Each structure stands twice: as C-alpha cells, then as structure tokens.
Amino acid sequence: MPVFGALALTGALLLWAPLRLDSERHPAAAARHPSAGPHPRPGALAPGWPSTLELGMADPSGGAAALAASGFGMRYQYLSGGVAGTKGWQSYGPGASFIDSYVDESVASGLMPIFSYYMLLQSAPPAARGGEREIDLRNLASASLMRAYFRDIETFLRYAGALGPHEIVLHVEPDLWGYIEQSASGDDASSVPALVSATGLSELRGLPNNAAGLAQAIVRLRDQLAPNVLLAYHLSVFGTGKDLLYSKPSLPEVGRLAARSARFYRSLKAPFDLVFSELSNRDAAYSEVVLKDHGASWWHAGDYARELRYLTDFVRLTAKHIVLWQIPVGNTLMRALDNTPHHYQDNHVQWLLSSPHNRNLRALAKAGVIALLFGGALAGDTCACDAAHDGVTNPPPIDGNKLRSYSADDDGGYLRARALAYAHAGAIALP
Description:
Order of helices and strands: HEHEHEHHEHHEHHEHHEHHEH
Oligomer: single chain
Largest sheet: 8 strands, parallel, barrel
C-alpha cells in the first residue's frame, strides 16, 4: 500500500472538437510578435495566464458551470480521431460550432479552455501495424498525411483565432515528442525525419523536414493565425529511455535525465509558451488489479522527490513553466473506491491536495508548476463524475477506506471537495 510523501508518466484520453485575423481582437499578439512588441522575459508567465496555481479537470461540453462551482479554474478536452476519415474533431459539430461552444461556455463560467490535440497516431490507415512510436514516425514520413495534418491544425487555429481576445491553450500531441526523443541522435530533434516544407504548403516554405521543423511549423501557424492561442509542448520523461517510477534512479541521475530532456526541447528551436507533463496515466490500483503489476505503479515518498527534482531542473534549464496534466482521480479514503471499474484507488489527489498547509503544492509552485489538471486516460479509470452510472455507492471498506461518499461521483466526491477547499482557502500565488 502506498505512503504519502514529499510526484508518475504518459497519457492519452479520447474525447473531443470567421476566419479573419484582427490584431485589435488579439492583445496577446504584442507578446508574441516581434513586430508588435517584445517577447515575454524568460521565465515570465505566458500572456493571459493566471498569477495563482490553478486546478483544472477533463470536462466535456455542458459541465463548465458545475466545474467552476467546485473551485476549478480550467477545463480540458481532447481533440482526437485523426485527420483522415470522418472521426476527427471536426466531426464533433458543424463548422466551428464545437470549438465556439466549448470556449464560450468556459469563458462564461470563468474557466480557461484547454484542448489536447492528439491526432497524429489516429491518422494512420486502419490497417497500420506497430506500436504508437512506429506508427507516429511512419506518419511523419507521409507527405499526403502530413499535408492533411497541417491543414487540420490550421483549421483549429483559424477557429480559435476568431475567438480572441480569449486565451485558449492548445496542448500539442501528448506522447509524440517523447517517441521522437527516443529516436533522436544525441537528443537532437533535427535528426528525426518529418515532412514539413516537403508537404508543398506555401506557409511552411523553408522549414526543415525534421521534427524540429514540425515544432517550428506549429509555432509559425499559431503566430500567423491565432496569437490568442497558447501552445503547450508535451514533456515525457520516457523520451530519455528511463521511467522515473519504475527505474528509480538516484537524484543525481534524475538531474542528468532532466538535462537531456531540456537539451531535446531546446533542439526544437520552437518557442512554445508552456510545457505539459504527467504523473501517472492511470490509477495505480487499475495497474495492480487489471494489469497485474503487483503494486509497482503506486507512488511513494522517493518517487515524488525524484519527480520534483526532474521538474525543477527542467524548468531551470528551459525557463518554461509546467502544467501537470491528466492526473489520476482515485483516492484511498472513500468507500466508493473498491477497485472495480470506474472506482480504482490512487494516491496523487491526496498527495497534491491534502498535505498540511498545502506544503506539496507550494513545493511544486516553487519548482515552476503553474497548474494541475485532473482526469483519467482510460475508459475504466476513476472519474470525478458518475461515469459508472451507479449513483452514490458505499461498498464495504477495503484497506481502511472508511469515508462515505459525498456525492455520486465515482471517486466519492473527494476531488471536488478538495478543489473547493483549496479555492476557499485562497489559491497559492505563483513565484
């Protein structure tokens, strides 16, 4: 059973998805365009970002008001399905209706809207073989697919750009950059092929046909079409070939891994505004009960210390702030968590939101973390909602989880209760 001490890895959930650029509608333009004004100082918060450590959660359309009432300040939604066929985010509603409604609903409730753009993997032909890394790299080498891919990103940016001055976050391809890093020579993104200018798109002319060019293309398109959009790079520690949780390196070795991750990021030569990273990609008890990992996915004090060192060093070396994303929702306190589908235990919520005087949150803020986003990655993960459709549940206690459910949420209502307590106590000011 885990202990709660002084932080785990990958992600990808699937949910969801005018055209003029008007500088008067985009005050953020002055922060990102050399012609319109200076860039932010290294280490400064991205334009429009709150000055306090914010909490957010995965949230589909229709949930913004309830989320805000629970003390959250952000919400995120996947854009997925692939650029080929009819299952991509553009099928979520006619034209820009899904993007418009999600942003409008978020802003009306005082929430920052975040979209996790997870499209490349699912853009592969249905018969594609191999793991995610092999499929992603193969897709990067297809001129027709990459042309459609950039057109898809352009479409999102045109829709989002028309919604200025509202700040919108586009979190670009979780996991992809880690797979590219695994394939790179000397942690250099330019060593990994990717078709960019070779797609024939005039707006990408002159960009290199490698992974660095891919990142530079996305930044260029954002600058041209949607200055109100904050771009988020995704940091996957597995890109170094090491997993902090399972390999348990020494702290000096963690520092070396962080330096490699920073070196790879800098090799992109693309100024993303933010960096997203993850803890675990599923509840620990899911891995223990369903995947039979014998408890290897539970986090302990040393694991949190390693993660804190890794993030601290990466921020120091890149001057980029971190958003922790897709944090598992389970807990070990509520009776609702009996390790059945949608009710799996985990300990991240407790570590993050229940330490005395918010000690652990303050340590993260000092390290450069600026937001925590909660949500499951798998269909059976615990949800701070009634995904199981079983109402309020209080099965017999296991392992001492004696608290009765506060609500019908599958986690017993614990996450929303802790988020509300955090908001009422006053959010932590960012350094």
